[in-house]
Fold this protein.
Amino acid sequence: MTRTSRGSKKLRIYRTLRQEILALALPPGTVLVESALARRFALSKAPIREALVLLQQDGLVESLPRKGYLVTSITVSDMHELVELRAILDGAAAELAATRITREEIAVLDGLHIPAELPTDPKATKRYMDVNREFHVTIARASRNRRLAQLVERAVDEMARLFVPGFLKAEHGEIVDALRKGDAPGARAAAIHHILMTQDRVLKREAVTRPSGPSPGAGPPSWGEG
């Protein structure tokens, strides 16, 4: 196998597993074993191992000596850090985009159809996530600041497990309305409000779906598990 061939296989495995982790098809706590993955992808362990190292660099898995790789959980601290980061990045991107976005980009945002009801099956959840990602990345790119757009894109992906699903169509509409008017302060405020409200819905959802108190000896709660 050539180095290029192995590299392409490594990236294919990496992208497949990364998407499954972000979509919670591989939820936090899942142990990934090289031999099992090699059988699944019908490949040797070398590209599997390299793909897992890339996932570890993304913070999506951690190594378990002699066992495999554990899909990491999202802690309360992680959540607050990510929300603060997204509020800063998305707010700045929307503010810049308000005076730089094109009619064509506004049309793209208008054409992204977000269902009124939260999805319940994995395929619908993936479509929901894809639409959300395209929405925020489109705005970030409309800022015409390449580095800022890259940071937003990475942060959106990192938060995907946390906010599956947690956003509403109306809040996206408020951002687009401000962008259409060229209202930079309004776009920034709407983007920040959207991130904070999404966090609030996730917290409320977790409070309903989880026991009222931690079990004895339990570690910190993890987020985005269902």
Q: What stands out?
A: Strands lie at 31-32, 61-64, 68-71, 74-75, 222-223. Residues 16 and 51 are 10 Å apart (CA to CA). The longest helix spans residues 184-209. Residues 3-73 form a domain with the Arc Repressor Mutant, subunit A fold (CATH 1.10.10.10).
